[in-house]
Amino acid sequence: MIEPMHLNDLANIGQIVGAIAVVISLIYVALQIRQNTNAIRAATAQSVHEHFANWYNSFARDASLSQIAINGLKDYGSLSEADKARCVAVFMAFLSYSQNAFLKWRQGLLEPSLWLGWEQVIMNLVCAPGGKAFWKERSYLFGEEFRRYVEDDLMKRTPHPEAKPMGAFSIARQPQ
Q1: CA atoms 59, 61, 105, 138: torsion sign
Q2: In which region does residue 161 sit, left (phi positive, over 0), alpha (psi from -120 to 50) or beta (all else)?
Q3: What is the pTM of this model?
Q4: Residue 176's pLDDT band (boundaries 50, 70, 90)?
C-alpha cells in the first residue's frame, strides 16, 4: 500500500525541482556569457581594423602626407617644422590605435592572429631609422606596459626580410 505524502516529502521534492532549475539557469547564463564574449571580441576586432583602415586611407587620400611619412621614417630629424608636426600627428594616431589594440590583445579581446599583423606594422615603423628617433622623442606619451613591449620586445626583434615601412624602403638589413 502506498503511504500518503507528507508535507516534508513535498518540501523535499520542491528542493530537488528548485536545484534542477538553478542548474538549468546557470547553464543558460554561461551560454549567454559566452555569446556576449564572442560578440565583444568581434566588435573589438572590427573597431581595431576600422581605426587602422582609416589611418591607411589618410595616406591614400593625401600624397603629400604619404611623402612626409616616408621621409620621416627615413630621417625624422630632417623634417621641416610643419612636416614634423604632420608626421607627429599621423604617427601618434597610429601608435595610439596600436596601444589600444595591444591592450585589447592583452585582455584577450583581440585574437592573437589579428594582433600579429598589427605587431608587424608597428615593428616596421619603430624599427625604421626615423621611427626609432620618433619613438625616442614621443614614447613617454604612452602607457608603461606598451612602452616596455615596444622597447624590450618589438624593437629588439629582427624585422621580417621583406619589411618595408609604408611599402617604401627596406629595413631588413639595418643594425638593431
Answers
A1: positive
A2: alpha
A3: 0.73
A4: very low
